[in-house]
Amino acid sequence: MVSQTPTGELCSIPALLARNVQVHGAKAAYREKEFGIWQSWTWAQTAQEIRNMALGLMVLGINRGDHVAIIGRNRPALYWSMVAAQMCGAVPVPLYQDAVAEEMAYVLDHCGARFVIVGDQEQVDKVLEVQDRLPNIEHILYHDKRGMRKYDHSHLNWLHDVAEEGRAGHQRVEAELDARIAELTWDHTCVMLYTSGTTGKPKGVVLSNRNVIETARNSSEFDRLAAGDDILAYLPMAWVGDFIFSVGQAYWTGFCVNCPESAATMMTDLREIGPTYFFAPPRVFEGQLTSVMIRMEDAGRFKKKLFDHFMAVARRVGPDILDGKPVSGMDRLRYALGDLLVYGPLKNTLGFSRIRVGYTAGEAIGPEIFDFYRSLGINLKQLYGQTEATVFITQQPDGQVRSDTVGVPSPGVEVRIADNGEVLYRSPGTFVAYYKNPESTASTKDPEGWVATGDAGFFEEGTGHLRIIDRAKDVGKMADGSLFAPKYVENKLKFYPNILEAVVFGAGRDRCTAFINIDLTAVGNWAERNNIAYSSYQELAGHPKVLDTIQRHVEEVNASVAQDRMLSGCQIHRFLVLHKELDADDGEMTRTRKVRRNIVAEKFSDLIAGLYDGAKQVSTRTEVTYEDGRKGYISATLELRDAKVVPVAKSRKEAA
Amino acid sequence: MTAAAQTMPAEGWTTADGRKIGPVLMEMKNITLRFGGVKAITDISFDIREGEIRAIIGPNGAGKSSMLNVISGFYVPQEGEVWFRGARRPPMKPYEVARQGIARTFQNIALFEGMSVLNNIMTGRLTMMNTNIAQQALWWGRAQREEDEHREKVEKIIDFLEIQHIRKTPVGRLPYGLKKRVELARALAAEPKLLLLDEPMAGMNVEEKEDMCRFILDVNDEFGTTIALIEHDMGVVMDLSDRVVVMDYGKKIGDGSPDDIRSNQAVIDAYLGVSHD
């Protein structure tokens, strides 16, 4: 029934929408919790809503090829507005909603958006703040009316009003709209997504209908996703993953997209929905595990014993049962009992009772964390991807899941390793171009369509699974010529619940040093249980007992790093605990929470100097940016500590 | 609007930021309140207009809270008259005043600590429940329908004040700033014509104050609720309010727009102190 040829009917999201109305018309397409109740829309209702919005945009005079910026948290209306824009032949450009006005201004200017569709007053304010510099913006449409009454509405519209106007004026613009829907092809731009950009300004990645739909089809088939599945849409709409999961795969398979009530209620909403297909970056899984462990620490002795006993059983046999490997009958019985008493209720609390396929990506996940979820019977897997690939490069098939690899090439994707160790790929999802940036396009994608990922990695012999070591440009040499792979060490550090972030320095130096960010939840709870008083993040981060704990972690990591002959030079000789959390608002991280190494090194150069000149203490003053964009300073005196390292000189000689 | 107390058009006016101030909603005429020999309020008159934000300020012990208690019907003044919506209000019980459309928050939070946020806010709708205790105990038919309707109204307020994430949390576990917000939510649940806020920002940090200011302005804007508030933070008062009454030792020493009040010598003296030589 479904035509899968590149020239078939299903070559745009609006076409898939029409198909879904035919096939799944009465089935829920979207749910959103509002006013304490899950409101839902069937595919038929969704199609009507989207059509009205598209008609409204036509009435406002949207042109083919216009860019429509979309800013806000995950809400059905904003997803609909993306499809409505596509119907009109325009290109949706979702933006990160937590970006400050300045960052938004760059992207809005670069894509030359004529229309901006936003969630609420907060976003309207940000756009208005920079609007005088952006002559392209003609209309701002908002979804949530609250607080908007007093605004000058000459270029401002309530999205609902626009849809109503579209419905009223449908006879005028309907024919034109239908023509525009019909002319959409495989090569039309489906969406433009700005990469968070660990270096330099964000780049607009142009993805065609072919990129999105073919990738959605391949990945849906890989995990047998179907109309009966449920996902929770809570990750930024500007991120390629959310677009593929909540739009690409959702429209391909017809499954239901559930939007939480607010960011703060995400965990409650997750439990209520119990998604069958779930994606989360490692930090979400880490956060959940940390909170479970904290609560178990506070539980009664009997419960704690029960938990510890059955978790030991789960760790021993759980992953094998999940992978379908042989397990003795007695162990199966134990596991079943554990499921009844511990795992089942725990999964229910976490919202993972119904999960069939779970993915994590973006960063390395700690083996303990990964195994914890898998031992509970949650089919958590890893994938490796990037915006330019329309997410998927490699992913782990069921039954071949490990924490240290990222799996085998996804269906339709070719992967090879360049001579310098960099991972290259070519796939149906390979992006069309960077918008208005032919140089970057040319330097990233060669004429044959191979794209350089910028990551160094290798295929494991025997299994054919890909392993990623680090960013290719971050893999460097130390002064003595030994390999420096900061990410590898940082990941080992971050696997400790007390450590939220770590930044390791050492390229071109004789030894490695590190900045550490404590995890306020874990360390704060520990402080509470040990009667350690503190009044601020800064004070807790500088507490001698906290430093002792972190020092133990660093020394354990050193011992573990020393085992790897190639990387034993990356042991951390000195470290400090930073007085502030690294933050995207201060430019220290990307919006997807990846550390910008160079900016951190530049900003805290005094601290790095201290780490290398042997100082015991360094006083520093740091600029911070508040959520509303204002700036302030915090001053602190940090203690710099030495960590024990395992002597490796001998083994390196042996290796040489 | 510098129209101030003296020359105001009876039908109201429009403020600089486009809000409509209507005719007089409540008028206090020559109120005097005594506790035995102590005069808490002496011969005070002022009015509150529909749609405005009216602040009552003054140093400690000036009689501000007593004034609010007179408005809410908790105290009955020995002299003077209270006019509400064009009619003189006879002495009433506080719950009768509440039924008339006046709701309040308290200087010291007065919530049910053991109950969830949702239930606390539901109590704000008590005066509007029409089913009796037996019907509610059976919770069938009309009682159930009624609860659904009230819940819907309450959920709108929860959404408005952005407290969805603590809906089911017992109030006792909440930090101070959020408790204040829950208290505001409960007062709003009564759908008041006139909302009385007794020191809504007391003890808050700057960020919490900014949030609260925004909510007060939004309430006034979205629901058209008239607001009378007591507040010590002068910055907040001057920013928020349309007109200000200043009290000192139970007497009114100033009444007018924030600008008038700022330049009023009696007010400056009362706040900065003046030597009595």
Automatic annotation (TrEMBL), chain A:
Keywords in alphabetical order: Fatty acid metabolism, Ligase, Lipid metabolism
The record lists the membrane-crossing segments as none
A Pfam family found in this protein is AMP-binding
A Gene Ontology term for the protein's cellular component: membrane
Q: Cite the GO molecular-function annotations of the record.
A: long-chain fatty acid-CoA ligase activity
Ranges for domain AMP-dependent synthetase/ligase: 18-435
Q: What is the designated name of this protein?
A: Long-chain acyl-CoA synthetase
From TrEMBL, chain B:
Which keywords accompany this UniProt record? Answer: ATP-binding, Nucleotide-binding, Transport
Q: Which InterPro entries match?
A: AAA+_ATPase, ABC_AA/LPS_Transport, ABC_transporter-like_ATP-bd, BCA_ABC_TP_C, P-loop_NTPase
GO cellular component annotations of the record:
plasma membrane
Would the keyword ATP-binding turn up in this protein's UniProt record?
yes
Q: List the CDD domains hit by this protein, alphabetically.
A: ABC_Mj1267_LivG_branched
Gene Ontology MF: a single term: ATP hydrolysis activity
Taxonomically, the superkingdom here is Bacteria
Q: Which residues form the ABC transporter domain?
A: 26-274
PROSITE patterns on file: ABC_TRANSPORTER_2
Q: Please name the Pfam families in this protein's record.
A: ABC_tran, BCA_ABC_TP_C
Enumerate the PANTHER family for this protein.
Answer: ABC TRANSPORTER ATP-BINDING PROTEIN, CONSERVED COMPONENT OF ABC TRANSPORTER FOR NATURAL AMINO ACIDS-RELATED
User: What's the protein called, per UniProt?
Assistant: Amino acid/amide ABC transporter ATP-binding protein 1, HAAT family
Instruction: Provide the species name.
Output: Gemmobacter megaterium
